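User: Can you predict the 3D structure of 4-hydroxybenzoate octaprenyltransferase? Sequence below.
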Amino acid sequence: MRPDDWVERWLPRSWGPYARLCRLDRPVGTWLTLLPCLAALVQAAGGWPTLWRLFIFSLGALLMRGIGCTINDIFDRDFDRRVERTRFRPLTSGQISLRQALYFLFGQLVVCALLLLAINAYSRWLALLLLPFVVVYPLCKRFTYWPQVVLGIAFNWGMLMAWSDTRDMVPLAGIAMWVGAVLWQVGYDSIYAYVDVRDDLELGLHSTAMRFADNGKLWISGFYVATMLLWLYAGVALHMAWGYYLVMAVIAAHFVWQMLLFSLQRPDRSFMLFRANIWVGVLMIVAALGGTLLG
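Assistant: Sure. Here are the predicted C-alpha cells for 4-hydroxybenzoate octaprenyltransferase:
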C-alpha cells in the first residue's frame, strides 16, 4: 500500500480503510475478474452486448472481488499480522475493527443481492452457487495445495453467468471457455504465489507454488497449454471467425513470453508477470469481437 495514492488524496479519511479492505486501491484483481466476463458477454451476444448488461456485470465483478477480499482479510487477519507485505492492511493494523469489517461485508452483500433483480432467474441461481466458493477460498490454503483452483472458479464464474443471462443457457463451448479461464488463473496465480512461498512455509499455509516447487515452469506451461486447447475448441464450437484465432495466436505468444521470463531465482519478476495477464483479458475481448464481428 502506498501512502500517497488516490485513496489517501481523494477519499475522506474514514472511507480509506474500507476502500483498501475491498482493494479499490489494487484494481488488478478486479480487471482479471471482469475482462474474461466481458469476453463471454460478447460471445454470448454474438457481438456487442447491451450497455445495461455491461453495467450490471461490471458492477457485479467489482463488488464480488471486494467481497472476496473482505472475507479473505477477515479469515486471514492473524496470519497477515506476521507477514511484512500484509501487516498494514486495515483489519490487521487496527484501522477498522472486526465488527466494522463484518458490517461492511454485509453491506456489499446487500448491494450484490439487489443486482440479482437485474438478471434472469437462471443467473440468480448461478450467483447463489458462487457464494460458497468465495467464502471457502481463504480457508483452502490451510488444507490443500490447490487453493488457486477454487480462486479460479470464483474469479471466472461471471463467464457462466454471462451466457445464462444472455441466452438463458450455458453451452458446452461456454463451459470450455470458463474451464480454460480457470486453468489460466491457476497458472498466473501460481506465478504470484511464488512470491509468498517463504512466508507460507513459516505460517503452515499451502499453495500451488509449494506443490510445484522447482518444477513451476513445467506445471504452469502445462496449464497454459490446456487453456489454449480449450479456448481453441470453444472457438470451433462457437463458429468463431478468423479474427478469433489470430488473436488466440497472440495470446499463445504472450504465454510463451511469460514462461521465458519466469524464473524461480527472480521472484521480483513474478508480480510483473502476474499483472501482465491483464493484457490476456483484454485480448480475450478482442478475440471475441474478432470472432463474432468478422464472420
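The chain has one domain: 27-58+118-293. The longest helix spans residues 51-75.
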